[in-house]
Specification:
93% of the residues lie in helices and 0% in strands. By secondary structure, it is mainly α. It starts with a helix and ends with a helix.
């Protein structure tokens, strides 16, 4: 039994529409897979960037911390040397200053 022309046309049209829908679904699924892959790649890039910047930051902190310890030690040594120099200088001139003050105090102005 053969189908009338209008039914054959509808059947072929239905098959054509089904093929178009299938093609669109496949195209969309390929596109979605590519978008998902791009998203995963971007997340990996972001994670790598964060890791690198955090590592660089931690390295700079450790370098700075080490330098500040050395700087503190160096400043303490310089301070001790300056205090020692001032103490020696004071002890050398203290007798002269005491004599000068005694002379001023004991002298009578007329």
């Amino acid at each position: 039994m053969s189908l009338p022309f209008s039914f054959r046309f509808l059947y072929v049209f239905h098959i054509s529409i089904s093929m178009c829908i299938f093609t669109l679904i496949m195209h969309c699924s390929v596109k979605m897979a590519r978008l998902k892959q791009a998203k995963e790649e971007a997340e990996k890039d972001v994670a790598l960037y964060h890791y690198n910047t955090e590592t660089e930051y931690q390295n700079k902190i450790s370098e700075t911390s080490g330098n500040s310890g050395n700087t503190v030690k160096q400043l303490e040594e310089e301070t001790e040397m300056k205090i020692k120099a001032l103490t020696e200088s004071t002890s050398r001139v203290s007798k002269e200053i005491v004599d000068m003050l005694m002379k001023h105090i004991t002298s009578v102005r007329t």
